[in-house]
Amino acid sequence: MTESAAAWRELLDTLRELDTSFLEGPRAVTDDRQIADGYRMLATGLGVALDCYLFPEPGRPQFVTVNTPTRHDRRWGGDNTDAYYHMCPVDPERKYRISGNKGDSVYLSLTAYNEPSPGTWSNRVVAIIRDTDLEFDTEGNFSFELGPLPEAAVFLTRDYQADPTTGRPVTWNIEALDPPEPFRHSDAATAAALRSSATWIRTLFAIMPMPVGTRPDESSLGHSIAHVANEFAAPYQVPDANFGWSARDACYSYGSFVLAEDEALVITHRPPACRFWNLVVWNQFMAAPGASDARSSLNGYSAVPNADGTVTVVLSRGTTTHPNSLTTLDYPVGNLAFRWFLTDQVPDRPEVQLVKVADAPTEVS
C-alpha cells in the first residue's frame, strides 16, 4: 500500500469517529437541529482542511476562502456575517508580493501565523500587516512584500465591512517572487497533506461543539458552576502567543444562551473607541445558519445607540420590534461572540438581563 493510500484511510477513519464529539459524552448535543449542524460542520470543516492542506502549493500561492457572510460550504473559526477571511499556506523561506484593492473595507489586515507541527493549529503570531501600515492610491489599490518569515506557515486575511450586503470586499492577490519548485504531486507529499488535514479537523472537533452554560436555576444543590448561561465572560485582548488564529488586533468576549420561547436577553454594553465591533449569534458549532433570512448579528455601524452611548440588544428565539433585535432562529441554546478591533482599551464586560419577551424594551433609551 502506498503512503497516500494509507493516509487516505486514516483520514476516513478520523471522519468516521468525529461525530462522537457531538453525539456522546459531556459535549453531546440533543436538539436534532444541532445534530444536523454537527454533520454539516464536519463537511464544511473537511472542505477547509483540504483547501488549506491538500491542494495548496506555497510556490504557486493562492488565497482560499475560509469564511464569508454568505458562503456556507466553507466556514471555520466562527461565522462572521460582517467579514471575509482568506487563507494561504506559505513557505517561510520565500518572499511574497501581496496586492489588491481595499473596496469598502472598514478594517483589513494580513496576519502570518506559525504551525508548530504539520496540521496543528497555530500558537503564535509571526507578523501582522494592518491597513494603517499600507499606502493606498486614489482608487484604493495597495501592494506590499512580505517574507522570508522564519516559522511562518500561513497568511490569513481579514476584511470587515460596515454593510456586507452592499460593501465591496477587499480584492487579495498573492505571488511568490522566486520560481516555484518543479511541479510534481508525489506520494509522500500527498500523504503528508492528507495527514495534516486529518490533524487539523481533529483539532477543530476537539473544541466543537462549543459548550453552553448552565442556567443558575438548573444547577443542582446550589453548587458553583464554571460557566453560566445568559452572560458573557470578561473581555480580553489577544496576545501574540495564542491558540488558533485569533486576531492580535482584537478583544473578544464569549457567552452562551439558554432561552425558552417566551424569554429574551437584554444585552447592554458600552463600545470603546475602536475601528469595528460586532456581536454574532452562533449555534454550538460557531455557525450562523440562516443569516440571510433573519438578523443574527449587529455591528458598530448598524447598531442604534442609546442616548448615553451604550448599545442595547434584545436577543430572542424570534424577533422583536427593538431596533437592535437579534434572533437565535428558534435555537433554544447556542453561543454569542463579541469582538472589538483596534480598541484603545479592553472593553467593559457586557451586561445581560434575562426577561420575558413581553417585558423586553422596544425602543432605545
Write a compact overview of the structure shown.
The chain has four helices and 18 strands. It has 365 residues and is α+β, with helices and mostly antiparallel strands. Strands 9, 10, 11, 13, 14 and 17 form a six-stranded antiparallel sheet that branches. Strands 1-2-7-4-5 form a five-stranded antiparallel sheet, with helices on one face.
Summarize the structure in words.
This protein has two domains: 3-207, no CATH class; 216-359, Sandwich (Jelly Rolls), CATH 2.60.120.1600. Helices cover 18% and strands 30% of the residues. The chain has helices at 3-18, 20-23, 32-54, 187-207; strands spanning 64-67, 83-89, 96-101, 105-114, 125-130, 141-146, 152-161, 171-176, 231-232, 236-237, 250-258, 263-269, 276-282, 297-299, 311-316, 325-327, 333-341, 351-356. Strands 9, 10, 11, 13, 14 and 17 form a six-stranded antiparallel beta sheet that branches. The chain has a five-stranded antiparallel beta sheet with strand order 1-2-7-4-5, with helices on one face. A four-stranded mixed beta sheet has the order 16-15-12-18, with no helix packed on it. Helix 1 (3-18) packs parallel to helix 4 and helix 3 runs antiparallel to helix 4. Residues 218-226 have low confidence and may be disordered.
